[in-house]
């Protein structure tokens, strides 16, 4: 780029850049000051930006799903929506769906051990699995993972690294309660997300 | 490493670019007066960084805008600092813009061949102000909402296209979701893009023409790097320091109560740098009768013409005469005009200066003498030795800044001396704090938005309903509930109604006939054909003659009667005095103080009913229909039946307030709200 309007001032010519101490100190001061003034807004921004990394919530929430009498012993697993009060950033929802589960009454009794509940999210990448009655299996329509009625992987070609995630079941006063939580996807271990 | 950089340079030529950027020649060496452009660039960069992160938190809709800003401000750790930096940097930027403009004009950098760059700068000024204007609305709080309404209503005054323009900007006929989405798109998309484009053009043209060096040169020439950059960096550091001081001093940026179209906000003001326009609008009557209407002149033509006048500054500045005498004369005229303005026009606006004319005159006179003083000291008074064009431009700029400062000062002075403004501001702060508090104790904000929290809150709504419906007669702590005066109180002060203290004073010969209780009611000043209320005679004559035992009985009766109200503030005392409270049925009846000779209590007596006196239900029933047989019946003074009621002629009267509203005001009177 040329500077047509640049005054050609012979008397005020710049001396060749002085490689002396003062010049170095000036440059160092520029770098330090420039870094400092940039660091402040960047730090203030990044601190708020990465906030979610430090935010931990309690893993599980106990939710009433159904009454014991409403589930036939030995029937097919049934899909239930899980609704509870929920906090999303600033909003407090009195009742909001936070996920879904399959609840299965495999025993004849009315104890917690007669029920089994699975989080309906596929442990592979979080798609919603469906229950296929005629084949007695859970099937994920995204990547074809298949799970037996007891939640274990039934097809060795399933991409899912683990079986369906069982949830803790409780029976209180004739109602089935499940401690709902989500788990980290695509790892062999079952690790709750907090 | 070197090979890699060579490879890169070969393909990008970056070394040449860096050289161009860093080694700009500065004739006469680096100077502090050249820092303003760099500080503005720094301010813009800070606004972009902080703005983008704020963007990630912001949610533009009528139910989420305030709420998301509340979340940034109150819940996200460090969020208030981030928002504070963005807010205060915007304020400081406006000041920096003015300083930059001032330096450019004084140093003559606006003249040929730099006219276009001057215009770029003026457009950048306009764009920055547009950024402020759009940003002001985004929190969707009362302050931003009402101030922006003023701005967009002014827009409607543009001839021919005003209505269409307003609808386009607002996104409809009234404020709502689309106002926010549009303002946000302008604030975070369109305007920043224009800003970047213009800044690139501005810096390109600046580099093309080189710096307008201040004569005479003080030192030998230097390069931008590192000489000038060091000064720039120090200046930026100072700017940042100022911003941070404000951030921590004011604890971030203000967030007033959520926007509510139904809640008047009489303290609606634009940001301080628009206050001069706001003030100017108050003088629009001076354009009465002008073609197009006064509003058009005050809000669009005159401010537009002033801006236009600044745009032709490069041509004014081109006048090449160098006549010190004329310049001196111009300066004197300017000073005289300023002095006239300060002493004659402004005086009435600043009543606190009354009696201090001597000081004002002294200051003005002193300012006028300064040139002579400079002359005597053989200092150069630079402006006189400039060309006529230059001198004129500088004076035009001074006049503009003078008008800006003066109008701004008057506006703030008006507000400072206006009690209504002070009340509105105080109320807005109280509402804001209350909303934040309610959001905290509710564990969050309901999906329908923060306004819902306020709508159902007795502490917020009670005083408002009281002011509109009760305070034409009643007072509350001597005022109308919202801090205003009650012109002609005609009924009792209801603060602490049914409390022990209230009853003690009411049942005392010294107080019942005062304005605080029944002094102005028909019970003391009977209407035509009626007598003074028996109750008043009872208190004034009988109670005054009570012996010691009766006095003690009265005190116990008051404790018992008051306990029926079940006031939150007295709960502990009521519990403590349970034994005294138990005596109420005996004390109130014919074996005690014989209240039931008239009053109803339980199954005895006639009216007004004292069963459950002051309780929530009693008050609800009373406010709904004080003329009911259970209460005052035909002796009711002027109090309307707010919940409707039978009416004296048997015809049902319409309700003035809903049950919910009556509940809110009753809960407020009883001090029942969530803490």
Looking across the biggest beta sheet of chain B, what order are the strands in?
A: 1-2
Class inferred from helices and paired strands of chain A: alpha+beta
Residues in β-strands, percent of chain B: under 5%
Low-confidence stretches of chain B: none
For the biggest β-sheet of chain A, the strand order reads: 1-9-8-4-3-2
Termini separation of chain A (Å)?
A: 57 Å
Provide a count of the helices of chain B: 27
Task: Fill in the keyword field for this structure.
heterodimer; A: alpha+beta; six-stranded antiparallel β-sheet; three-stranded antiparallel β-sheet; 2 helices; 31% strand; disordered N terminus; B: two-stranded antiparallel sheet; 58% helix
How would you summarize what this structure contains?
Chain A is an alpha+beta fold.
Secondary structure: elements and pairs:
The complex is a heterodimer of chains A (194) and B (675).
Chain A: H1 21-49, H2 51-54, E1 61-67, E2 78-88, E3 91-105, E4 115-119, E5 130-132, E6 137-139, E7 146-148, E8 166-172, E9 175-180
Antiparallel strand pairs in A: 1-9, 2-3, 3-4, 4-8, 5-6, 6-7, 8-9
Chain B: H1 2-12, H2 14-22, E1 25-26, H3 36-55, H4 65-75, H5 79-106, H6 115-137, H7 142-155, H8 162-170, H9 177-209, E2 222-223, H10 224-249, H11 275-281, H12 294-311, H13 313-316, H14 324-345, H15 357-376, H16 388-416, H17 419-441, H18 451-455, H19 458-470, H20 500-506, H21 534-542, H22 548-563, H23 571-576, H24 578-581, H25 584-588, H26 616-624, H27 659-669
Antiparallel strand pairs in B: 1-2
Helix pairs in contact in B: 3-5, 3-10, 4-5, 5-6, 5-10, 6-7, 6-9, 11-16, 14-15, 14-16, 19-27, 26-27
């Amino acid at each position: 780029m040329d500077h047509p309007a640049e005054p050609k001032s012979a008397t005020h010519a710049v001396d060749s850049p002085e490689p002396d101490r003062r010049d170095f100190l000036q440059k160092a001061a520029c770098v330090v000051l420039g870094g400092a003034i940039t660091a402040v807004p960047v730090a203030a921004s990044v601190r708020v930006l990465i906030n979610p990394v430090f935010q931990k919530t309690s893993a599980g929430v106990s939710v009433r799903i159904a009454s014991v009498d409403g589930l036939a012993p030995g029937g097919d697993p049934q899909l239930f929506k899980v609704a509870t009060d929920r906090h999303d950033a600033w909003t407090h929802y009195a009742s909001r769906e936070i996920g879904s589960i399959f609840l299965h009454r495999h025993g004849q009794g009315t104890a917690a051990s007669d029920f089994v509940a699975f989080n309906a999210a596929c442990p592979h990448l979080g798609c919603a699995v469906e229950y296929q009655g005629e084949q007695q299996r859970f099937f994920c329509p995204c990547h074809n993972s298949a799970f037996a009625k007891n939640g274990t992987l039934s097809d060795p070609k399933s991409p899912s690294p683990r079986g369906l995630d069982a949830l803790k079941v409780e029976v209180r006063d004739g109602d089935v309660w499940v401690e709902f939580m989500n788990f980290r996807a695509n790892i062999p271990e079952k690790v709750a997300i907090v | 490493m070197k090979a890699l950089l060579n490879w890169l340079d070969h393909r990008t030529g970056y070394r040449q670019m860096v050289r161009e950027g860093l080694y700009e020649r500065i004739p006469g060496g680096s100077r502090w007066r050249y820092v303003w452009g760099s500080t503005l660039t720094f301010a813009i960069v800070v606004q972009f960084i902080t703005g983008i992160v704020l963007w990630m938190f912001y949610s533009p809709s009528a139910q989420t805008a305030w709420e998301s800003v509340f979340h940034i401000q109150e819940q996200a750790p460090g969020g208030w600092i981030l928002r504070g930096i963005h807010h205060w940097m915007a304020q400081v930027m406006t000041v920096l813009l003015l300083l930059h403009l001032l330096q450019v004009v004084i140093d003559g950098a606006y003249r040929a061949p730099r006219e276009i760059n001057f215009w770029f700068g003026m457009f950048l000024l306009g764009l920055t102000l547009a950024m402020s204007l759009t940003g002001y609305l985004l929190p969707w709080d009362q302050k931003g909402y009402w101030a922006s309404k003023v701005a967009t209503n002014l827009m409607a005054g543009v001839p021919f296209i005003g209505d269409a323009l307003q609808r386009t900007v607002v996104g409809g006929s009234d404020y709502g979701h689309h106002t926010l989405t549009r303002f946000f798109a302008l604030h975070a998309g369109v305007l920043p893009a224009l800003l970047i484009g213009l800044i690139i053009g501005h810096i390109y043209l600046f580099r093309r023409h080189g710096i307008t060096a201040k004569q005479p040169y003080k030192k030998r020439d230097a390069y931008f790097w590192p000489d000038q950059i060091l000064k720039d960096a120090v200046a930026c550091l100072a700017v940042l320091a100022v911003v941070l001081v404000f951030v921590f001093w004011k604890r971030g940026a203000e967030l007033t109560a959520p926007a509510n179209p139904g809640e008047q906000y009489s303290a609606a003001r634009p940001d301080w740098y628009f206050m001069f326009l706001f003030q100017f609008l108050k003088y629009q009557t001076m354009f009465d009768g002008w073609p197009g209407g006064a509003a058009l002149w005050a809000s669009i033509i005159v401010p537009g013409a002033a801006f236009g006048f600044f745009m032709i500054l490069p041509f004014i500045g081109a006048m090449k005469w160098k006549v010190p005498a004329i310049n001196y004369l111009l300066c004197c005229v300017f000073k005289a005009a300023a002095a006239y303005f300060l002493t004659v026009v402004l005086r009435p606006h600043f009543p606190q200066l009354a009696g201090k004319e001597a000081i004002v005159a002294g200051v003005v006179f002193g300012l006028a003498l300064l040139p002579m003083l400079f002359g005597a000291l053989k200092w150069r008074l630079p402006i006189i030795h400039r060309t006529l064009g230059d001198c004129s431009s500088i004076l035009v700029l001074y006049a503009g800044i003078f008008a800006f400062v003066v109008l701004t000062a008057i506006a703030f002075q008006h507000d400072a001396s206006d009690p209504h403004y002070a009340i509105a501001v105080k109320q807005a702060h109280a509402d804001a704090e209350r909303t934040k508090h309610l959001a905290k104790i509710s564990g969050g904000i309901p999906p329908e938005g923060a306004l819902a929290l306020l709508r159902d809150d007795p502490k917020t709504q009670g005083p408002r309903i009281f002011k509109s419906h009760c305070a034409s007669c009643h007072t509350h702590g001597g005022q109308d509930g919202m801090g205003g005066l009650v012109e002609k109180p005609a009924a009792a002060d209801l603060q602490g109604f049914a409390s022990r203290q209230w009853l003690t004073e009411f049942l005392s010969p010294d107080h019942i006939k005062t304005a605080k209780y029944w002094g102005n009611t028909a019970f003391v000043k009977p209407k035509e054909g009626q007598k003074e209320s028996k109750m008043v005679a009872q208190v004034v004559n009988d109670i005054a003659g009570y012996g010691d035992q009766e006095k003690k009985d009265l005190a116990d009766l008051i404790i018992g009667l008051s306990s029926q109200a079940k006031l939150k503030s007295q709960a502990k005392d009521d519990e403590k005095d349970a034994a005294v409270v138990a005596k109420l049925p005996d004390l109130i009846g014919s074996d005690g103080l014989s209240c039931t000779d008239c009053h109803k209590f339980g199954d005895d007596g006639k009216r007004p009913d004292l069963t459950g006196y002051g309780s929530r239900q009693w008050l609800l029933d009373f406010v709904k229909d004080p003329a009911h047989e259970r209460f005052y019946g035909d002796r009711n003074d002027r109090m309307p039946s707010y919940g409707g009621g039978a009416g004296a002629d048997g015809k049902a009267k319409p309700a003035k307030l809903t049950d919910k509203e009556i509940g809110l005001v009753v809960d407020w009177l009883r001090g029942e709200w969530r803490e």
